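Budget justification, computational time. The allocation requested in the original proposal was used primarily to generate C-alpha coordinates for proteins on the priority list. As evidence of use, we reproduce two of the resulting records. The first is shown immediately below.
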Amino acid sequence: MRDYSNIPVLNWEGSISAKKAMAQVHHAEPVILQMPEDFILAIDISVCGCEKSRSSAQHIDCHAADTLKALAETNRMPELAELAEIAHEAGQVVDIETDNRRIIIHD
Protein backbone atom coordinates (compact mmCIF):
# COMPACT_ATOMS: atom_id res chain seq x y z
CA MET A 1 0.00 0.00 0.00
CA ARG A 2 1.05 3.58 -0.55
CA ASP A 3 2.06 5.89 2.26
CA TYR A 4 -0.46 8.69 2.69
CA SER A 5 0.75 9.80 6.13
CA ASN A 6 1.73 13.30 4.96
CA ILE A 7 -1.61 14.06 3.23
CA PRO A 8 -4.28 15.96 5.18
CA VAL A 9 -7.55 14.14 5.90
CA LEU A 10 -10.91 15.86 5.46
CA ASN A 11 -13.98 14.22 6.99
CA TRP A 12 -16.74 14.51 4.40
CA GLU A 13 -19.72 16.38 5.80
CA GLY A 14 -21.45 17.70 2.69
CA SER A 15 -21.13 21.02 0.92
CA ILE A 16 -18.75 22.63 3.44
CA SER A 17 -16.33 19.73 3.05
CA ALA A 18 -16.72 19.91 -0.71
CA LYS A 19 -15.71 23.58 -0.78
CA LYS A 20 -12.64 22.86 1.37
CA ALA A 21 -11.66 19.93 -0.85
CA MET A 22 -12.14 22.02 -4.00
CA ALA A 23 -9.87 24.74 -2.65
CA GLN A 24 -7.19 22.19 -1.77
CA VAL A 25 -7.38 20.41 -5.13
CA HIS A 26 -7.57 23.69 -7.10
CA HIS A 27 -4.08 24.48 -5.75
CA ALA A 28 -2.90 20.99 -6.80
CA GLU A 29 -2.54 19.98 -3.14
CA PRO A 30 -3.32 16.37 -2.23
CA VAL A 31 -6.21 15.57 0.10
CA ILE A 32 -7.79 12.48 1.63
CA LEU A 33 -11.58 12.49 1.78
CA GLN A 34 -12.85 10.33 4.63
CA MET A 35 -16.32 9.38 3.46
CA PRO A 36 -19.32 8.57 5.70
CA GLU A 37 -20.37 5.02 6.63
CA ASP A 38 -23.18 4.88 4.07
CA PHE A 39 -21.03 6.07 1.14
CA ILE A 40 -20.80 3.59 -1.75
CA LEU A 41 -17.29 3.30 -3.20
CA ALA A 42 -18.10 0.77 -5.93
CA ILE A 43 -16.61 1.78 -9.29
CA ASP A 44 -15.83 0.09 -12.59
CA ILE A 45 -12.03 0.13 -12.40
CA SER A 46 -11.60 -0.39 -16.14
CA VAL A 47 -13.91 2.53 -17.03
CA CYS A 48 -12.20 4.73 -14.41
CA GLY A 49 -8.74 3.84 -15.73
CA CYS A 50 -7.42 2.50 -12.42
CA GLU A 51 -4.09 0.72 -12.14
CA LYS A 52 -3.87 -2.68 -10.47
CA SER A 53 -3.00 -2.73 -6.81
CA ARG A 54 -1.69 -5.52 -4.61
CA SER A 55 -4.84 -5.18 -2.53
CA SER A 56 -8.34 -5.79 -3.89
CA ALA A 57 -9.57 -3.11 -1.45
CA GLN A 58 -7.46 -0.41 -3.13
CA HIS A 59 -7.66 1.07 -6.62
CA ILE A 60 -4.82 3.39 -7.61
CA ASP A 61 -4.15 6.17 -10.12
CA CYS A 62 -7.76 6.30 -11.32
CA HIS A 63 -8.81 9.05 -13.71
CA ALA A 64 -10.10 11.80 -11.42
CA ALA A 65 -13.02 13.06 -13.52
CA ASP A 66 -14.41 9.63 -14.42
CA THR A 67 -14.04 8.24 -10.91
CA LEU A 68 -15.44 11.18 -8.97
CA LYS A 69 -18.32 11.64 -11.42
CA ALA A 70 -19.25 7.96 -11.11
CA LEU A 71 -19.17 8.19 -7.31
CA ALA A 72 -21.18 11.43 -7.42
CA GLU A 73 -23.88 9.75 -9.47
CA THR A 74 -23.98 6.57 -7.37
CA ASN A 75 -24.19 8.51 -4.11
CA ARG A 76 -26.29 11.43 -5.39
CA MET A 77 -23.63 13.97 -4.41
CA PRO A 78 -23.35 16.69 -7.07
CA GLU A 79 -20.51 18.31 -5.10
CA LEU A 80 -18.29 15.37 -6.06
CA ALA A 81 -19.03 15.97 -9.74
CA GLU A 82 -17.89 19.57 -9.34
CA LEU A 83 -14.76 18.37 -7.52
CA ALA A 84 -14.17 15.95 -10.42
CA GLU A 85 -13.77 18.82 -12.87
CA ILE A 86 -11.38 20.71 -10.60
CA ALA A 87 -9.27 17.60 -9.97
CA HIS A 88 -9.10 16.90 -13.70
CA GLU A 89 -8.06 20.48 -14.48
CA ALA A 90 -5.36 20.30 -11.78
CA GLY A 91 -3.95 17.10 -13.30
CA GLN A 92 -4.76 15.00 -10.24
CA VAL A 93 -5.51 11.29 -10.01
CA VAL A 94 -7.57 9.37 -7.46
CA ASP A 95 -6.85 6.38 -5.26
CA ILE A 96 -9.76 4.56 -3.60
CA GLU A 97 -9.53 2.58 -0.36
CA THR A 98 -12.79 0.69 -0.11
CA ASP A 99 -11.98 -0.89 3.25
CA ASN A 100 -11.34 2.52 4.88
CA ARG A 101 -13.95 4.52 2.88
CA ARG A 102 -11.28 6.95 1.68
CA ILE A 103 -10.80 8.84 -1.57
CA ILE A 104 -7.23 10.09 -2.02
CA ILE A 105 -6.77 12.88 -4.56
CA HIS A 106 -3.11 13.45 -5.50
CA ASP A 107 -0.75 14.12 -8.40
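The second record produced under the same allocation is shown here.
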Amino acid sequence: MKHLIFADESSTDKLRYMFIGGIWVDEPTYLQVLEECKNFKKDNNWDEQTKFNWKNVSKKTLPQYCKFIDIFFKYNLQFNCIIIDRTEIELKANKLKDPELGFYKFYYQLLRKNSVPNIPYYIYLDRRTNREPNRLERLKSFLKQDTHPRNFMGFRTTNKGLNIKALEFVNSKSHELIQFSDILMGAISYHYNKRNLRPDASQNKCELAQYIANKINKSNLVFNTGKKGYKNLNLWLFKSNKELGIK
Protein backbone atom coordinates (compact mmCIF):
# COMPACT_ATOMS: atom_id res chain seq x y z
CA MET A 1 0.00 0.00 0.00
CA LYS A 2 1.20 3.47 -0.86
CA HIS A 3 2.29 5.61 2.09
CA LEU A 4 2.90 9.36 2.20
CA ILE A 5 5.05 11.54 4.43
CA PHE A 6 4.51 15.29 4.85
CA ALA A 7 7.34 17.05 6.68
CA ASP A 8 8.48 20.50 7.73
CA GLU A 9 10.88 22.22 10.11
CA SER A 10 10.34 24.78 12.87
CA SER A 11 12.31 27.15 15.11
CA THR A 12 15.31 27.24 12.79
CA ASP A 13 16.34 30.63 14.17
CA LYS A 14 18.28 31.23 17.40
CA LEU A 15 15.96 29.40 19.81
CA ARG A 16 17.54 26.60 21.82
CA TYR A 17 15.44 23.77 20.36
CA MET A 18 14.93 23.21 16.65
CA PHE A 19 12.37 20.77 15.21
CA ILE A 20 12.08 18.64 12.09
CA GLY A 21 8.90 16.61 11.93
CA GLY A 22 6.27 15.09 9.71
CA ILE A 23 3.15 12.99 9.37
CA TRP A 24 3.19 9.38 8.14
CA VAL A 25 -0.07 8.21 6.57
CA ASP A 26 -1.35 5.47 4.27
CA GLU A 27 -3.11 6.54 1.10
CA PRO A 28 -6.73 5.55 2.04
CA THR A 29 -6.51 7.50 5.31
CA TYR A 30 -4.88 10.41 3.53
CA LEU A 31 -7.78 10.68 1.09
CA GLN A 32 -10.28 10.63 3.95
CA VAL A 33 -8.38 13.38 5.77
CA LEU A 34 -8.31 15.54 2.62
CA GLU A 35 -12.08 15.21 2.27
CA GLU A 36 -12.57 16.06 5.94
CA CYS A 37 -10.37 19.16 5.63
CA LYS A 38 -12.24 20.25 2.52
CA ASN A 39 -15.60 19.93 4.28
CA PHE A 40 -14.24 21.67 7.37
CA LYS A 41 -13.20 24.72 5.37
CA LYS A 42 -16.50 24.74 3.50
CA ASP A 43 -18.47 24.63 6.76
CA ASN A 44 -16.50 27.65 8.00
CA ASN A 45 -17.01 29.54 4.72
CA TRP A 46 -13.27 29.48 4.07
CA ASP A 47 -11.57 29.14 0.73
CA GLU A 48 -10.08 25.70 -0.01
CA GLN A 49 -6.65 27.35 -0.27
CA THR A 50 -6.86 28.73 3.28
CA LYS A 51 -3.59 27.86 5.01
CA PHE A 52 -3.37 26.94 8.67
CA ASN A 53 -0.07 27.78 10.33
CA TRP A 54 1.14 28.45 13.84
CA LYS A 55 1.99 32.11 13.32
CA ASN A 56 -1.64 32.91 12.41
CA VAL A 57 -3.18 31.62 15.64
CA SER A 58 -5.23 34.45 17.11
CA LYS A 59 -8.27 35.07 19.29
CA LYS A 60 -10.44 35.06 16.18
CA THR A 61 -9.00 31.84 14.70
CA LEU A 62 -8.36 29.83 17.88
CA PRO A 63 -11.70 27.92 17.85
CA GLN A 64 -11.18 26.89 14.22
CA TYR A 65 -7.58 25.85 14.88
CA CYS A 66 -8.69 23.61 17.75
CA LYS A 67 -11.27 21.96 15.48
CA PHE A 68 -8.72 21.66 12.69
CA ILE A 69 -6.23 19.86 14.94
CA ASP A 70 -9.11 17.59 16.07
CA ILE A 71 -9.01 16.10 12.56
CA PHE A 72 -5.42 14.99 13.19
CA PHE A 73 -6.49 13.13 16.33
CA LYS A 74 -9.74 11.83 14.83
CA TYR A 75 -7.79 9.84 12.24
CA ASN A 76 -5.03 8.95 14.69
CA LEU A 77 -2.40 10.30 12.32
CA GLN A 78 1.22 9.55 13.21
CA PHE A 79 3.48 12.54 13.85
CA ASN A 80 7.22 11.90 14.21
CA CYS A 81 9.60 14.67 15.21
CA ILE A 82 13.29 15.11 15.92
CA ILE A 83 14.18 17.80 18.47
CA ILE A 84 17.68 19.26 18.25
CA ASP A 85 19.20 20.86 21.35
CA ARG A 86 21.51 23.48 19.88
CA THR A 87 23.34 24.00 23.16
CA GLU A 88 24.67 20.47 22.70
CA ILE A 89 24.67 19.99 18.92
CA GLU A 90 26.20 22.02 16.10
CA LEU A 91 24.78 21.42 12.64
CA LYS A 92 28.21 22.05 11.16
CA ALA A 93 29.72 19.15 13.15
CA ASN A 94 30.57 17.14 10.04
CA LYS A 95 33.64 16.63 7.88
CA LEU A 96 32.65 19.47 5.56
CA LYS A 97 31.75 21.87 8.41
CA ASP A 98 28.50 22.47 6.53
CA PRO A 99 25.40 23.35 8.63
CA GLU A 100 23.08 22.62 5.70
CA LEU A 101 24.52 19.12 5.44
CA GLY A 102 24.02 18.76 9.20
CA PHE A 103 20.39 19.79 8.82
CA TYR A 104 19.80 17.07 6.21
CA LYS A 105 21.55 14.49 8.37
CA PHE A 106 18.71 15.02 10.84
CA TYR A 107 16.14 14.79 8.06
CA TYR A 108 17.77 11.49 7.11
CA GLN A 109 17.48 10.22 10.69
CA LEU A 110 13.84 11.28 10.95
CA LEU A 111 12.84 9.54 7.71
CA ARG A 112 15.00 6.47 8.18
CA LYS A 113 14.13 5.69 11.81
CA ASN A 114 10.37 6.01 11.31
CA SER A 115 10.00 4.14 8.01
CA VAL A 116 10.30 0.50 7.03
CA PRO A 117 11.66 -1.25 3.91
CA ASN A 118 9.36 -2.59 1.17
CA ILE A 119 6.63 0.03 1.72
CA PRO A 120 6.48 2.55 -1.17
CA TYR A 121 6.93 6.06 0.24
CA TYR A 122 6.06 9.37 -1.38
CA ILE A 123 7.73 12.13 0.64
CA TYR A 124 6.79 15.80 0.45
CA LEU A 125 8.80 18.46 2.28
CA ASP A 126 7.78 22.06 2.76
CA ARG A 127 9.66 24.17 0.24
CA ARG A 128 12.93 25.74 1.41
CA THR A 129 15.97 27.30 -0.24
CA ASN A 130 19.19 25.26 -0.17
CA ARG A 131 22.70 26.47 -0.81
CA GLU A 132 23.45 23.19 -2.57
CA PRO A 133 20.77 22.41 -5.19
CA ASN A 134 21.01 18.60 -5.16
CA ARG A 135 20.27 18.04 -1.47
CA LEU A 136 17.05 16.13 -2.10
CA GLU A 137 18.58 13.88 -4.73
CA ARG A 138 21.40 12.95 -2.37
CA LEU A 139 19.02 12.44 0.54
CA LYS A 140 16.85 10.16 -1.58
CA SER A 141 19.89 8.19 -2.70
CA PHE A 142 21.09 7.56 0.85
CA LEU A 143 17.61 6.62 2.08
CA LYS A 144 17.41 3.98 -0.63
CA GLN A 145 20.81 2.48 0.19
CA ASP A 146 21.43 -0.44 2.51
CA THR A 147 23.19 1.12 5.49
CA HIS A 148 26.45 0.00 7.03
CA PRO A 149 28.82 1.29 9.74
CA ARG A 150 30.84 3.49 7.39
CA ASN A 151 27.87 5.07 5.63
CA PHE A 152 28.46 8.74 4.73
CA MET A 153 25.34 9.85 6.61
CA GLY A 154 26.63 8.46 9.89
CA PHE A 155 23.98 5.79 10.37
CA ARG A 156 25.55 3.09 12.55
CA THR A 157 23.46 -0.06 11.99
CA THR A 158 22.99 -2.32 8.98
CA ASN A 159 19.50 -2.13 7.44
CA LYS A 160 17.83 -2.56 4.09
CA GLY A 161 17.22 0.63 2.14
CA LEU A 162 13.82 2.30 1.88
CA ASN A 163 11.54 2.17 -1.15
CA ILE A 164 11.38 5.89 -1.96
CA LYS A 165 9.15 6.54 -4.95
CA ALA A 166 9.20 10.32 -4.66
CA LEU A 167 10.98 12.95 -2.58
CA GLU A 168 10.23 16.56 -3.46
CA PHE A 169 9.54 20.05 -2.22
CA VAL A 170 5.96 21.33 -2.28
CA ASN A 171 4.08 24.47 -1.29
CA SER A 172 2.52 23.82 2.13
CA LYS A 173 -0.43 26.04 1.16
CA SER A 174 -1.74 23.12 -0.91
CA HIS A 175 -1.01 20.37 1.64
CA GLU A 176 -3.04 20.30 4.84
CA LEU A 177 -0.90 17.55 6.38
CA ILE A 178 2.16 19.81 6.28
CA GLN A 179 -0.05 22.40 7.98
CA PHE A 180 -0.79 19.88 10.74
CA SER A 181 2.97 19.42 11.16
CA ASP A 182 3.48 23.19 11.30
CA ILE A 183 0.89 23.62 14.06
CA LEU A 184 2.13 20.66 16.10
CA MET A 185 5.76 21.79 15.94
CA GLY A 186 4.75 25.36 16.73
CA ALA A 187 2.94 24.18 19.85
CA ILE A 188 5.76 21.85 20.90
CA SER A 189 8.32 24.62 20.36
CA TYR A 190 6.21 27.01 22.43
CA HIS A 191 6.58 24.66 25.40
CA TYR A 192 10.10 23.34 24.77
CA ASN A 193 11.54 26.82 24.24
CA LYS A 194 9.45 28.19 27.13
CA ARG A 195 7.82 30.81 24.96
CA ASN A 196 4.62 30.21 26.93
CA LEU A 197 6.33 31.50 30.10
CA ARG A 198 7.36 34.84 28.66
CA PRO A 199 5.49 37.98 29.75
CA ASP A 200 4.63 38.70 26.12
CA ALA A 201 3.42 35.15 25.36
CA SER A 202 0.35 34.89 23.14
CA GLN A 203 -2.55 33.69 25.27
CA ASN A 204 -4.16 32.13 22.21
CA LYS A 205 -1.04 30.13 21.31
CA CYS A 206 -0.74 29.07 24.95
CA GLU A 207 -4.31 27.79 24.84
CA LEU A 208 -3.81 25.88 21.58
CA ALA A 209 -0.57 24.28 22.81
CA GLN A 210 -2.28 23.23 26.03
CA TYR A 211 -5.27 21.94 24.06
CA ILE A 212 -2.94 19.64 22.12
CA ALA A 213 -1.22 18.48 25.32
CA ASN A 214 -4.61 17.68 26.87
CA LYS A 215 -5.53 15.57 23.83
CA ILE A 216 -2.74 13.12 24.76
CA ASN A 217 -3.27 13.42 28.51
CA LYS A 218 -0.06 15.36 29.09
CA SER A 219 0.39 18.40 31.31
CA ASN A 220 2.61 19.95 28.64
CA LEU A 221 4.43 19.08 25.42
CA VAL A 222 7.92 18.82 26.91
CA PHE A 223 8.61 15.09 26.77
CA ASN A 224 10.91 12.69 24.98
CA THR A 225 9.68 9.38 23.61
CA GLY A 226 12.98 8.41 21.98
CA LYS A 227 12.60 6.13 18.99
CA LYS A 228 9.61 4.08 20.17
CA GLY A 229 6.97 6.78 20.14
CA TYR A 230 4.04 7.72 22.35
CA LYS A 231 0.57 7.16 20.94
CA ASN A 232 0.58 9.30 17.79
CA LEU A 233 3.14 11.89 18.90
CA ASN A 234 6.74 10.69 18.76
CA LEU A 235 9.23 13.30 20.01
CA TRP A 236 12.84 12.20 19.75
CA LEU A 237 15.20 14.56 21.58
CA PHE A 238 18.83 14.67 20.45
CA LYS A 239 21.28 15.81 23.11
CA SER A 240 24.57 14.72 21.60
CA ASN A 241 26.33 14.61 18.24
CA LYS A 242 27.30 11.02 19.10
CA GLU A 243 23.73 9.97 18.34
CA LEU A 244 24.41 10.87 14.71
CA GLY A 245 27.66 8.93 14.66
CA ILE A 246 29.54 12.21 14.41
CA LYS A 247 32.90 12.55 16.15
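A brief technical remark on that second record: Residues 243-247 have pLDDT under 50 and may be disordered.
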